[in-house]
Amino acid sequence: MSMYQKTAHEFNEQFMSNWKSNACFHRKCITSIDLCDETLLKLKALVLEKGFENLQDEIHFFKEVKPKILSVKYACRGLLEFEFEKAINQEMEVVELQQKCLNKMQEKFNSFKDFRYYLCGSSCNRDEQYFTQGSMKDDYILRIFTEVEKGFSTGYDILVSYSLAIDFMKDYFEEEVPSKKQKFYPELQWTGNKTDLVELLATLHRTNVFNNGENEFKHFALAFSHIVNFEIKDVFRTVSAIKDRKKENKSFLNRMLNAFQEMITDAHK
Fold it and tell me: 150 and 67 in one domain?
């Protein structure tokens, strides 16, 4: 294990310990960012003092080692921004806010489509061009990103870090189910009598307007009983009692029809 890999391994252990802790989310992000900064300073000192053993060592550092650490900083920074946006834009859907933050991160790649395609592929034939400092002396990428540090960046290691940060944030958003904005509907409670409810449900069932009529009445009534928080016992016995009823003016549907006619009449006044 090289000195760089050892430092990166120590960082990963400390980061995972912090991220899985019971600390509040904001504190975990801030601690992670501080840990990233400390580790990157340590690595920078090593790079400036020791350099690299060979070309492959340098490529591995700027393609694999440094981006994995720097990406945590970018991701935590982006997630803190997301939480802030969520707090001040409570009317906006959480999914929209998540996509907004991801798009902001993705904008870093707008001028580097060729590199993005290269990164998604399996080829390594341009690694020396992208991940060694010797080939970057006159590259304009060094002047675009403020994160680029002379002697400690090729420029493209920054883009790799943003790519990994996007993946980190996507994973976090997918696991963030409890914090997603939920729509709450008022609880319904049937306050009429059981006979009226069964009469209504039996009629609705006969109209075949739910599941194209492909459901048993018993299951249909049970589903509605949960919706309106009213237990219906002996549903078929109640249906039989309704059929044997002689006074039609007591029908719940007749009362509903009268209420409907009153509504129409009121609408034309």
Answer: yes
